[in-house]
Q: What sequence folds into this?
């Protein structure tokens, strides 16, 4: 059996009946949506999703910075006045 990675869970039937109520009851925590007692999706608040996307973008930007650090010696210095 797969692990449920949250404290709250609901069946697809429960989700269909009243999604707003489920979100309210979870108090902003993710909800595992179960199909035959197996997690098939996770429902998270929009604010949490936006924060996760920001974190992911920051992480990817950090990887890009590390990848390009070796190019620093070939960089051209530019003063803001010159722009």
A:
């Amino acid at each position: 059996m797969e692990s449920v990675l949250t404290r709250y869970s609901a069946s697809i039937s429960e989700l269909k009946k009243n999604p707003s109520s489920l979100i309210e009851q979870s108090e902003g925590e993710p909800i595992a949506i179960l199909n035959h007692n197996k997690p098939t999706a996770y429902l998270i608040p929009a604010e949490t999703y936006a924060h996760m996307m920001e974190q992911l973008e920051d992480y990817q930007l950090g990887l890009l910075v590390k990848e390009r650090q070796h190019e620093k010696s070939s960089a051209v210095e530019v003063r803001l006045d010159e722009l």
